Amino acid sequence: MAMFARPLLAALLLPAFLLSAASAADSKNNPADQLVTLINSNRTASKASTVSDNQGLGCIALQYIKAYEGQCDQVDEKKPMESSFTDTFAPTCGVQATTLSKITGRLVGCQSKYVSPAEAFDILVNDAKGLQILHSKNHTEVGAAVSGTDRGGPYFWCVLFSDGKPTTSFKVDGEVPKTAIHPGCFSGNNDDCMGPTNGAISINAGALSLVGALLFAVACAFAL
Ligand SMILES: *[C@@H]1O[C@H](CO)[C@@H](O)[C@H](O)[C@H]1NC(C)=O
Ligand SMILES: *[C@@H]1O[C@H](CO)[C@@H](O)[C@H](O)[C@H]1NC(C)=O
């Protein structure tokens, strides 16, 4: 009996193992990873290729929104200086300066309340221009981030696209430095970042997103 049961058990366990291995690649507890998944499924549904999730670019996306210093109302008018990429973002993330590649598109939005990645997607891609950036064939890779300030909100979401070669661009030596990570979450590093301490999600995220009082429903999408 046992001789028959074992292969059967293995046959039952193998798919479960494969499933867990697949989900380990991108953390379920990371809203930035979830946003990248939504971006890629929307791209493939419109016959655009998927873009690679690059942790160096994701970390830079997080520094990009930290540069706003929590000023939600400035997300439309201002953006960090180009020189910030080489002067602060790359060094903070441990990204080798020589591997920085061209940013081919960005989507940035800010909300007073935490929303789900799906709602953030809709806010970031809320017009024809946003859709054009989302579906552009110029992109080969992506980095996404969500960040709160120390007190929790407001919540900035940022997606940066690049046309760099995924394996050689935005290259991080070893690991992204801890100081570059929390508060906030970025994609591509398999960081389990949910929880009140990192400022990305408040305990009542589900209820809050239902309330959805969007004080600053400013989402902007600008092409370069
Ligand atoms: C892709 O996203 C756009 C913008 O939110 C939406 O209008 C469209 O229905 C989405 N496509 C699919 C296949 O989900
Ligand atoms: C793709 O890149 C080309 C060359 O830089 C640019 O002219 C074009 O507007 C870009 N397309 C999109 C959809 O951003």
Helix and strand topology:
Layout: H1 2-25, H2 31-45, E1 52-53, H3 55-66, H4 83-93, E2 103-111, H5 117-124, H6 128-135, E3 141-148, E4 155-162, E5 185-186, H7 205-211, E6 218-222
Parallel strand pairs: 1-3
Antiparallel strand pairs: 2-4, 2-6, 3-4, 3-5
Residues 42, 45, 122, 125, 131 line the site of one 2-acetamido-2-deoxy-beta-D-glucopyranose.
Transmembrane segments: 201-223
Protein name: Ferredoxin-like protein
Keywords: Membrane, Signal, Transmembrane, Transmembrane helix
Describe this structure as you would to a colleague.
With 224 residues, the chain is an alpha+beta fold. It has a single domain, classed as Pathogenesis-related Protein p14a, CATH 3.40.33.10. It contains seven helices and six strands; from the N terminus they run ααβααβααβββαβ. Strands 1, 2, 3, 4, 5 and 6 form a six-stranded mixed sheet that branches. α2 (31-45) packs across α5 (117-124) and α3 crosses α4 (83-93). The model is unreliable at 1-25 and 202-224 (pLDDT under 50). It binds 2-acetamido-2-deoxy-beta-D-glucopyranose (2 copies). The site of one 2-acetamido-2-deoxy-beta-D-glucopyranose (NAG) has 5 residues, from α2.
